[in-house]
Amino acid sequence: MGRIVGIDLGTTYSLVAYTDAATRKPVCLADEQGRTLLPSVVSLDPAGSVVVGWPARERLLRQAERTVYSVKRLMGKGLEDVREELQLFPFRLAPGSESVIRIQLGEKIFTPPEISAFILRELKRRAEAFFSEEVSRAVITVPAYFNDAQRQATKDAGRIAGLEVERLVNEPTAASLAYGLDKHQRALIGVYDFGGGTFDISLLRLQEGLFEVLATNGDTHLGGDDIDNLLAEKARAEIHQQLKLDVAENPELYQSLRNAVIAAKHALSAEERTTLRFPLDARGDYVRELTRAEFESWIEPIIERTLGPAKRALKDAGLKPEQMDEVVLVGGSTRIPLVRRRVEQLFRRRPHCELNPDEVVALGAALQANILAGGVEDMLLLDVTPLSLGIETLGGAVAKIIPRNSTIPASATEMFTTYADNQTGVDIHVVQGERELVKDCRSLARFTLKIPPQPAGLPRVEVKFLIDADGLLQVTARDIRTGQQASVEVKPSYGLSDDEVERMILESIEYAEADFAATQLIGARNEADAVLRATARALAEPQAQELAPEERREIEQAEAALRQALAGDDYRLIRERIEALNQATHHLAEMLMNAAMQTALKGKRADEVNL
Ligand code: ADP
Ligand code: MG
User: Fold this and answer.
1) In this structure, is residue 508 part of a structural domain?
2) Nearest atom (ligand 1) to Cα of 72
């Protein structure tokens, strides 16, 4: 038996969840700071240890050449597949990335599955801390459109992280499960997933416990990041116009502006107005009132861009929007009220949004994990193959052997023969895709079956395709007369070999332990820096003059103590002293807040700049 966790390995954020045995409810696990989301960012510390998640994200700017994000975009891809990504993202490929992509992080080189494995290991560790026992089995979600190579790469990542991947589940299927939609006898389900950097629409048909992907569409370069970029640019232009100061010239300042607009964006999902505030320089903050109406008028074109792919998916599936029985919202960006309104208008139905949209996929994965672990007996959940699989025949045509949307596991057999006299081998070329010609499909693998020379048309070669429950393929070719056979577990030309994965597993162990304390230390140091900066800023405010002398002395002592702790490398001590400084500045913070409220109530001009 043993426990199986559910993992959403996302482009921007990843999560781990489990199903509570007593309540049968799935729950996302949080880190020490109570955060369930783990940024899918990995950084290699100059000291040689690997940093994952929030502290890695803080390094995106200062240690760009040692830090990587959005690696999901490279999973299971070859060099020719990623040209576009390379133009849009600062991926630094190492030399020799032709067959397998390799990413340069500082002085080390990693493949995308290895990078993903660092993220998975962090989630594994989170689960192990929670259960106080080893966790070695997981269900991992993948986008519905992921092909064989991308699925294989995800499985490899799991193995490298020391996780047995019990099942790969399509993200929209997981989201539907989280909402309990599998209780329907049959239903048409639309899943609208608007995340950090990607937009996916999936149309599913549920029938007798079977989720079938009717159509998928989307935009791999459309998400919350675009909104953040737009807002940051608006703010930059405004500051430039008013103060003749170009924030973009200082990358750190621009990053802090970006963080401020993201905070404002999040606030506007819950409130009608918010204050955009960010520390411009020693003289003061940039402050600007922002209403939801203004925000929505800016981002409208971005939201509009999701509707085209959604309509195309409906058209491909031959469905009208109002035929959907259920619509599910997934992804952090669907918290934006305008997104919800647009989706509701399109489908003429209120979408499900009761659960945290950034958690639903992980919650569904946890439910599926529970089913596999035997926690629920009366339930069988199956997925289907997303793309057809076949082999090349005469003239570059494709003979489909397993059509798309076959339930998995699946197998099919077909007979082939030779078309030239005295052929001594039959070349089997395995392809994936819906098009008729090999050149329009994705080449998965090639191998040769040796046969004794015979006249054309006489040999009988049986080709068998077997797809396991993860959608992974094994192809066997057998000469019926001689009983000779050859087979491949399809490792696409740009995938990793078993030996490579084994080697990576061994290598990864060297990182596994050392990193925890290092990560903690980095996180504590960053937090300390931020708290010290904030304290200095607060002390410079006019209201701080009203502090009692002993209060000010106490703050200064706490600051000095924290600085002293920062010189050492005891993360617990640093955290303690951050806490002490926070205590000491408590009253000051209240004073500043009251002052800020009074200023706001006085009805200052909305776009005023406090300097
Ligand atoms: P992934 O692309 O990895 O699946 P998520 O689904 O977690 O990512 O979505 C992340 C995006 O959601 C980010 O752009 C984030 O800013 C955005 N987001 C999170 N919470 C909110 C919110 N309250 N309002 C608007 N956007 C949000
Ligand atoms: Mg997602």
Assistant:
1) no
2) 3
Greatest CA separation for the chain: 103
For the CA of 269, the nearest atom of ligand 1? 24
Q: Are residues 92 and 52 part of one domain? A: yes
* 408: Cβ contacts below 8 Å, ≥ 6 apart: 382, 383, 384, 385, 467, 468, 469, 470, 471
Query: For position 540, which CATH number holds?
Result: 1.20.1270.10
Please confirm, yes or no, whether 378 is among the known catalytic residues. no
* Ligand 1 pocket residue status of 433, Cβ below 6 Å: no
Q: Is the dihedral of CA 286, 290, 294, 299 positive or negative?
A: positive
Of residues 45, 58, 72, 200, which has the active-site annotation? Answer: 72
Q: From the CA of 13, how far away is ligand 1's center (Å)?
A: 8
Task: Tell how far the Cα of 193 is from the centroid of ligand 2, in angstroms.
Answer: 7
Nearest CA to ligand 1 atom 19: 332
SS3 call for 357 = coil
Among the residue ranges 20-29, 174-183, 290-299, 481-490, the one predicted with the least confidence is 481-490
Say which CATH number the domain at 401 has.
Answer: 2.60.34.10
Within this chain, do residues 191 and 162 fall inside the same structural domain, yes or no? no
Q: Are residues 224 and 326 in the same domain?
A: yes
Q: Which phi and psi (to 5°) does residue 222 adopt?
A: -150, 125
> How many other C-beta atoms are found inside a 10 Å radius of the C-beta of residue 510?
9
Q: Is the CB of 459 under 6 A from ligand 1?
A: no
Give the pLDDT of residue 607. 44
* Residue 504, domain member (yes or no): no
Is residue 81 annotated as a catalytic residue, yes or no? Answer: no
* Closest atom of ligand 1 to CA, residue 13: 3
Q: Which atom of ligand 1 is nearest to the CA of 227?
A: 14
Statement to judge: residues 225 and 334 lie in one domain:
yes
SS (H, E, C) 486-517: EEEECCCCCCCCHHHHHHHHHHHHHHHCCHHH
| Ligand nearest, relative to CA of residue 12 | 1
Residue 609 in any domain: the answer is: no
Whole-angstrom distance, CA of residue 363 vs CA of residue 355: 9
Asked if residue 61 has pLDDT above 90, the reply is no
With a 6 A CB cut-off, is 332 part of the ligand 1 pocket?
A: yes
Same domain, 345 and 314: yes
pTM (2 d.p.):
0.72
Range of the domain at 480: 383-496
73 lines ligand 1 (CB under 6 A): no
Please give the residue that has the higher pLDDT: either 231 or 62: 231
Ligand 2 centroid to residue 356 C-alpha, Å: 12
**Domains of the chain: total:** 4
Please pick, among 156, 171, 359, 470, the residue that the annotation labels catalytic: 171
> Which tokens in the block code for residue 141?
């979600």
pLDDT at 586: 87
Confidence at residue 473, expressed as pLDDT on a 0 to 100 scale: 81
pLDDT, residue 605, reads 42
Of 454, 202, 220, 171, nearest to 316 by C-alpha is 202
Model confidence band, residue 378 (pLDDT cutoffs 50, 70, 90): very low
* Within a domain: 507: no
Specify the residue for token string 């057809």. Answer: 388
Q: Note whether 95 and 169 are same-domain residues.
A: yes
pLDDT at 572: 87
- Residue 195, ligand 1, Cβ within 6 A: yes
- CATH number of the domain at 94, please: 3.30.420.40
pLDDT at 109: 93
**CA of 220, nearest ligand number:** 1
